[in-house]
């Protein structure tokens, strides 16, 4: 029975319930739904395999202001666990006040992200990020040499490094490895959407299901926000940046498609993540949907996947209802996963 939804639509009409014409046929929805199955374990690179002691060391470093010059900032000053690992600000706060260049991105589900890191891809891999903020004079303002010296001089850290690595030396590479191992454990908790993907039909509303159809269908969001973490890890101009704010284009000036291109963010736990976009220029999800509805700034670099959508108010509401199913909710909030099932025991 290929047109099951048709029957549901006429039943709903008989009952006087409004239905969106954008609803996808059941087989199509089922195929899309299968694309979002949650992974069973957290992937770790061969070059920096998981161990519990290394992750614990990384956790400690992440929350410790010892990594800032004047000992006032830690990674968690900006990547706050209860704000989906961002900071609630439009753009990050510089050390001496004033806005930094970018909005603080969430750190959820980075273990699944392949390719480069940072809004403009300035970081080669997750390990390479750490000393960006640590040694930036406008951010944590601590040189790698001083970081190594401080941690070596601290008996607690000296012991933790000795436990996590083959010998007790504290090095820049080991600080990076430990922080990245901890960061790969920052995984979003199962949300209503995941229960629906796993087969619980009642886990999300009919509005959210229509929003899911739009997300994958006419609104084309899944062209870039793909898979379980809702990011393709790639760079696109969706029509936001202006002027000198060229994103990936700064590093690849000859590529037209990479001018004003920024990395596709994942879409989990958006409820705690306002403001939005690399420059924090949009204050609400409704404003984000309006931007896509208009199609952003029309220019040669704009992605061919972006075009004006002419969504109705009901369709916009459906997409918002769908995005809301990606929140695990206040009770479970955002969890740092425990020891991943597939990880080798230390
Ligand atoms: C002042 C606030 C602030 C502090 C402190 C900070 N970050 Fe960030 N973080 C940001 C901003 C802003 C960006 C975006 C930078 C860019 O794209 O160039 C970012 C980007 C990142 C990314 C890339 C995420 C992605 O999706 O590509 C990672 C990983 C990260 N930070 C980890 C850390 C770690 C680890 C620390 C501590 C050593 C730290 N941050 C300290 C604000 C901060
Ligand atoms: C061509 C690829 C592409 C398509 C299609 C696309 N997005 Fe995006 N999305 C991105 C990129 C890239 C960004 C970051 C843009 C920036 O900061 O300038 C983004 C940002 C967002 C954000 C803000 C997240 C944050 O952390 O700031 C949301 C929410 C979002 N998109 C939802 C959607 C929805 C809903 C649709 C469909 C209506 C959609 N996107 C279509 C690539 C895409």
TrEMBL record:
**Which controlled-vocabulary keywords does the entry list?**
Electron transport, Heme, Iron, Metal-binding, Oxidoreductase, Periplasm, Signal, Transport
InterPro entries given in the database record: Cyt_c-like_dom (IPR009056), Cyt_c-like_dom_sf (IPR036909), Cytochrome_c_Peroxidase/MauG (IPR051395), Di-haem_cyt_c_peroxidsae (IPR004852), MauG/Cytc_peroxidase (IPR026259)
Which intervals of the chain form a coiled coil? none
State a single Pfam family of this protein.
Answer: CCP_MauG
Gene3D superfamilies the UniProt entry points to: Cytochrome c-like domain
**Quick check: keyword Cell inner membrane in the entry?**
no
Please name the pathway: One-carbon metabolism; methylamine degradation
Return the cofactor note field: Binds 2 heme groups.
Record-given protein name = Methylamine utilization protein MauG
